[in-house]
What does this fold into?
Amino acid sequence: MSTRIRLTPEDRREQLLELGVAMIGERPIDEFSIDALAHDASISRGLLYHYFGSKQDFVRAVLRRMADGLFEATAPVDDPSLEVRLRVSIQAYLRWVGANLTGYVSFLQEAQRGNNEVRDIYLSARAALTDRIFDSCSAEELAAYGISDLPRVRMFARSWAAMVEDVVLNWINDPQDLSEDEIVASLTRSLAGVLGAVSA
Amino acid sequence: MSTRIRLTPEDRREQLLELGVAMIGERPIDEFSIDALAHDASISRGLLYHYFGSKQDFVRAVLRRMADGLFEATAPVDDPSLEVRLRVSIQAYLRWVGANLTGYVSFLQEAQRGNNEVRDIYLSARAALTDRIFDSCSAEELAAYGISDLPRVRMFARSWAAMVEDVVLNWINDPQDLSEDEIVASLTRSLAGVLGAVSA
It folds into this structure.
């Protein structure tokens, strides 16, 4: 008996993206299989190409979906303290990376191996995360934190995010004697340290 | 007339490594050609394999040589001020990356695309650079800078180096309104900002 379910095109597209995100969590992007995906979604390859155009287009849409998931997971909470908002977002980042480790590492590797379209998705996702810090604060609030909203400071914020990524991946791999609270607190303080250094 | 020159095995090995470093500055590692190298060095492929075992072994030896070059280029100067020593080394790093850009970017891409042996060369080179900061200072000097010599602090120093790498590559690509002096001063200050955050 067929279990094929009739979905609207929009719902079908969503379902395929979710399956794609799950698949990227299980195997390297190189081994991403349209056949396996069509099988899992109980649709034909042809229909999959109808929705996404090509395997490359589909992979990019899946990576964008993953980046959107990270962006949503790390949204600033409603708290008057910038320090608290940063800490909560950094903790959410750390937990999201832990929960999506295989897929995220695949994404990073693909971005760094010279695939320029994937690299652009990665860089714009990273810029969105750090620009949000500036855009969710008043100039006074940033100034009280020792930070100016200048292009050079936003540039350093993006590179600070590269440092955070490196710290978090290393910490997940080998936590040493550092608790989650300690690593989150250290990373939160480091933002002021880095952005203060270039705001001066 | 043959221009082949008789070299000692040690000198020949050095010559081949230098040619390899130059070649990595000119083309992606994927396109690294043993034939072209043997031609440039006026030796046979067989002799090249005699010195290095395999193409992979040769590429790794070349990348280690490149990493050694960076380590030497950024050696701390003899100055009583830690801040001055850091600034001079960071400036030397920035200039070395600018002068070795193509090869260095190839190295990074190879390290990040999942080639574990190259990644190990990259990570140990990076750890050597940041461990030297701690090893060239007394505990008192570090303390005066707000830094403790703890494993967690050394871990953050390695990730700070990832941030520096990202800043420097971005800056070389698009300097915006930042002079070399400004970028070097900002990066120097950021080290204390980051390591102070995790020393606390």
Remarks:
- Chain A touches chain B through 37 residues (CB under 8 Å).
- The longest helix of chain A spans residues 151-173.
